[in-house]
Amino acid sequence: MIDLHTHSVFSDGTNTPAELIQMAEDRHLKALALTDHDSVGGIVPLMEAAANSPVEAVPGIELSAACKRGTMHILGYFIDHTCPVLLEKINKVREGRALRNQEILKRLNKRGYVLMWSDVEKEAGEDVVGRPHFAEALVKRGHVKSRKAAFDLLLAKGRPAYVERYRYTAKECIELIREAGGVSVLAHPATINLPPDQLKGLVYGLAECGLGGIEVYYAEYNPENMALFGEWADQLGLIATGGTDFHGGNTPDLKLGTGFGQLRVPDEALDQLKAALK
Ligand code: AMP
Ligand code: ZN
Ligand code: FE
Ligand code: FE
What is the mean pLDDT of residues 197-204? Predict the structure, then answer.
């Protein structure tokens, strides 16, 4: 059993990379990839923790690509976390996040939600600050009942406190991951929110840009999603990868490796990612 999609305190997860490795060991996972949003800060601690563990650690990242409708995320595996171009480009994204965070705060304050930057920062861990941290801070301040309510009411795309931020195109994300020596995978294609025929066209275009894989195994998929994406992987010669998208306490019902209980990501996915590097 392996898990190729997890988050730590370096983005919006609640566990340190070392804790993730320990949990993976306890759950008898063979391998675990860390895929924090726009951050490679967790990779050194991850590799250090895994050095004394039977769990194989895979360095990764999750980039948000520009997407008109829904949400498009591109995962990068086996990236060189010291690659100067990668660091420079993710820095630009992080500057975009900083600007956006101040604007979100302003919008919330303007609507009468008493909230300070320090409240939000307190929710964040080591590195990237994002909307989930705003959501948590809004709950703590008693403005909303739950994280979900914070998104539904204020923070989700189209809601009053939603602010765009700088993103690379999917093609740029794929090229950046390749430049950093990694292999790219389209994460949870269902969140792109296109009808199947259009989504397939999009995936086809990304494959032509050098996309290496597609997330076929994902905790929140229904069996139809999985069958469809598996079929596309076969047809387009993409590696069928997968993972839980574990965020620790932020995804309390979800278990590392098995998701909501049914998920099994085949070990071959990792072997194929490695083969694609050569
Ligand atoms: P950000 O990268 O700051 O835009 O935040 C994106 C993260 O917010 C995602 O990875 C999700 O964890 C969370 N998120 C986005 N939209 C929603 C939503 N509608 N409900 C709950 N969580 C969401
Ligand atoms: Zn996340
Ligand atoms: Fe994602
Ligand atoms: Fe994720």
Answer: 97
